[in-house]
Design brief:
Length: about 350
């Protein structure tokens, strides 16, 4: 039988995914082992908590990338007025506009692609989890830890929460029997997943973006992401296993809480969140010094470096005082001393 032309590409991709399959299946087995004594090995909630713990581990590992994402997004917000000035000045020459825009990005330390980096790096992990759970739904072990433990694969395939198996999908169960508990569980998880994603993006736009950043091309991109991403995940979610929906909902909750913390503690200057931060400081009787402002607006809680589109913290300097110089006695010769 002749092999399809794309089969070598599929095999190569599968080979690259094997380490992720191994890691995902290993973490699932580990957390299942830890939760089993409390809830039972075949309890659906044991597998749910295993997926949640897996998600938390992944998001903790991605914290450095999240910090870089916040820094990049903030820099992109702050330089939008300069970008619009370049568009007005070089709008007739697209090549010159592109060159000047890239030059501005380099000078300000901004990177438009950095805000997408955590999502891009998380995608292979998401795909690995999807494939592991999708394989379990069809009795196919993916990942060495499940291949070596067939009873665990069967347990993952048949474990239930609220009448829905961890491996079930909204479309996979069909509608021959009408609306079932599987449909309801999947719909609720899809709503929770997309709703948390929408709230996270809306919170960023309403609280932590200056007014000048809410207009122009960058603002249009943010609005597109606000609506398109949740819709895309909602449409795709009908084919996601329940376990994947749980993973994605947990990941979105983490993102929402993480972003809430950053916005509250380190708001961008000139935003409603920044005004609220100053009001809280004054209500507690704490003076808002220039150093405090610089620290609050730094994404990682440290003072920003000069040359990155931000002014350094102002340090009070004592005025110079007149220097008292004591006059030294004039040196005398030996003959003068004898006199």
């Amino acid at each position: 039988m002749e092999t399809a032309w794309y089969q070598p590409i599929v095999d190569f991709g599968s080979t690259l995914m094997q380490p992720l399959y191994w890691a995902v299946s290993g973490l699932l087995v580990l957390f299942h082992y830890l939760w089993s004594p409390l809830l039972g090995a075949d309890n659906g909630w044991t597998w749910v908590l295993s997926i949640v713990c897996l998600t938390v581990i992944i998001r903790v590992l991605l914290i450095p990338l999240f910090v870089r994402q916040i820094k990049s997004s903030r820099q992109m917000q702050l330089i939008q007025p300069k970008v619009r000035e370049l568009q007005k000045k070089y709008g007739h020459d697209r090549q010159k506009l592109g060159e000047e825009t890239m030059k501005l990005y380099r000078e300000e330390g901004a990177n438009p692609m950095a805000s997408c980096l955590p999502l891009l790096l998380q995608s292979p992990i998401f795909f690995a989890l999807f494939r592991v759970l999708d394989g379990a739904a069809h009795g196919i072990p993916r990942g060495q830890w499940l291949k070596d433990r067939r009873p665990l694969l069967d347990s993952l395939q048949n474990a239930e929460i609220f009448g829905a198996r961890i491996s079930d999908t909204f479309m996979g169960v069909g509608f021959a029997g009408g609306i079932t508990s599987i449909h309801i569980v999947c719909v609720l998880l899809i709503i929770a997943m997309t709703g948390s994603m929408f709230i996270t993006q809306l919170q960023l736009m309403r609280k932590n973006m200056p007014p000048e950043a809410l207009t122009g091309q960058f603002a249009q991109q943010q609005k597109i992401m606000l609506y398109v991403f949740p819709i895309a995940f909602a449409v795709g979610g009908i084919n996601f296993p329940v376990g994947v929906l749980i993973y994605w909902f947990t990941s979105n909750l983490w993102t929402m809480a993480q972003q809430f913390y950053v916005i509250r503690r380190n708001p961008s200057p000139g935003t409603p969140a920044y005004d609220a931060w100053e009001a809280r400081r004054r209500a507690k009787g704490k003076p808002v010094t220039p150093a405090d402002k610089d620290k609050a607006s730094a994404p990682n809680g440290v003072a920003r470096r000069n040359g990155k589109g931000a002014e350094p913290a102002t340090v009070p300097v004592e005025p110079d005082t007149p220097r008292v110089v004591r006059q030294q006695p004039r040196r005398q010769t030996r003959s003068q001393r004898k006199r």
